[in-house]
Specification:
It is a single chain. The protein has 279 residues and is an alpha/beta fold. The chain has a single domain, classed as P-loop containing nucleotide triphosphate hydrolases (Rossmann fold, 3-Layer(aba) Sandwich). The protein is 34% helix and 22% strand. The chain is built from 9 helices and 10 strands. Pfam families: ABC_tran (PF00005).
């Protein structure tokens, strides 16, 4: 299953057929209020070396944000700390104004996490898996079945929804994991290399669903090695190297910052990373 849902959570209002309120939930610490979906300040994590170095990052509500960087740059570590799967050594994480370090359950209620290695129950069918995850969120089967069916259809799994997942390819498993992460209608979707190992058809299904979610008002932050995807899908792109955010902006802004109006993202990426590694 997901790395998230081992406990019963209080169901968000919008999952009970009500309009979500902007009011602060009882007992939930709220940080600075603005239009940010995610605000990271001074985030730091050290293993045998410094993996994330005093990172500041703000992602606006309704934005598609791509985080790119070389292997070992700190992308996955950053997202795991944001998702509450790894405790930072220093810094703060605010998700829609909720202090995610002080109130991890409240923060998880409004987010979804999908890793590059899908973790699902092989003996369940996709429909059973989604209904199981929905049950952990307290969503009744009568409400979850149509949502699950719609998600599976959007990802091209309608003909496989009653087949056990044990024989599925990497791409099919990734799509089931994504559908399971979205079944509770999260406002922030956190994705670590979601397109790795996917064929062209599966990748198109995933990109299509994510684009639909952003158009509906969701916020997406995604790491990717596929620079073309970042260039075509993201509203803004962050370049991370050696645990630091070395550049950020729209593609046009990144070009302007580096003085080359027609430079490709690949060339910008290589130049920025090389400069950081030489520093």
């Amino acid at each position: 299953m997901t790395e998230f849902a081992a406990a019963r959570f209080t169901v968000p209002k919008h999952l009970r057929g009500m309009v979500a309120s902007d009011a602060k939930p009882q007992g939930v610490a709220v940080m600075k209020r603005d239009d940010s979906a995610l605000e990271v300040m001074g985030l730091t994590k050290c293993f045998d070396r410094l993996a994330v170095d005093n990172l500041d990052l703000t992602i606006h509500a309704g934005e598609f944000y791509a985080l790119v960087g070389p292997n070992g740059a700190g992308k996955t570590t950053t997202l795991r700390m944001v998702a509450g799967l790894l405790r930072p050594d220093a810094g703060s994480v605010s998700i829609f104004g909720i202090d995610a370090l002080q109130n991890p359950v409240a923060a998880k209620q409004v987010m979804a996490w999908v890793s590059d290695e899908p973790m699902i129950y092989d003996k369940l069918t996709p429909l059973e898996y989604l209904e199981f995850v929905a049950g952990l969120w307290g969503i009744a089967p009568s409400a979850s079945e149509p949502v699950a069916t719609e998600l599976l259809n959007s990802l091209g799994l309608e003909l496989h929804r009653h087949e056990r997942c044990e024989g599925f390819s990497k791409g099919m498993r990734q799509k089931v994991a994504l559908a399971g992460a979205l079944v509770h209608d999260p406002r922030l979707i956190i994705l670590d290399e979601p397109l790795t190992g996917l064929d062209a058809v599966s990748a198109r299904h995933v990109k299509g669903l994510l684009s639909e979610r952003v158009r509906a008002g969701c916020t997406v932050i995604m790491t990717t090695h596929i620079l073309e995807v970042a260039e075509r899908m993201a509203d803004r792109i962050g370049v991370i190297a050696a645990g630091r955010l070395v550049a950020e902006g729209t593609l046009t802004e990144l070009r302007q910052q580096n003085g080359h109006a027609d430079t490709s993202l690949e060339d910008l990426f290589i130049a920025l990373v090389t400069l950081q590694e030489a520093a």
